[in-house]
Design a protein that fits this description.
- This protein is an alpha+beta fold and about 140 residues long.
- It contains two helices and six strands, in the order E-E-E-H-E-H-E-E.
- The strands form two sheets. The chain has a four-stranded mixed β-sheet with strand order 3-6-4-5.
- Helix 1 runs parallel beside helix 2.
- The chain is globular, with a radius of gyration of 15 Å.
- The N and C termini lie close together (about 5 Å).
């Protein structure tokens, strides 16, 4: 596997993600921020953070497959959530769990989570970008 995730001694261990991602593959894949659009460009889950996170993850899964990879190859996810507050974490994690169950992969939580004022389309509540390394 091209990616090893670790929590080094001396840094806090956080259940949701690992502090360090070590990549050893040869092909870098940078996936543009994915929003909750379906194949026709229609927003999925208007007003529903979990549904939108799920769709973002499914879209990333499609992009990874096109590049010859999978979520096992993800070195870093960056998640942008409109009007983020910590009470939204359960909905975020619910969306991740639903998507990864559909994809049949181990849940990949974000390495970076940022609250933003708005995204490009008012109906979008979340945008997720990924960096992967594929052998």
């Amino acid at each position: 596997m091209a990616i090893t995730l670790v929590n080094p001694n001396g840094l806090p261990e956080i259940d949701a993600y690992r502090q360090v991602s070590i990549a050893t593959g040869s092909k870098l894949v940078f996936i543009a921020g994915q929003v909750a659009w379906d194949v026709d460009g229609v927003t999925v889950g208007e007003g529903d953070l979990a549904a939108q996170v799920e769709q973002c993850y499914l879209n990333i899964g499609i992009a990874l497959a096109e590049a010859g990879g999978s979520f096992d190859d993800v070195a870093k996810l960056t998640v942008y959530v409109v009007d983020w507050t910590p009470d939204k974490m359960p909905r975020l994690m619910e969306g991740i769990a639903r998507a990864t169950a559909k994809l049949g992969v181990t849940p990949v939580p974000p390495a970076t989570l940022l609250g933003v004022a708005a995204l490009d389309v008012p109906d979008h509540l979340v945008e997720i970008e990924a960096t992967a390394v594929i052998d």
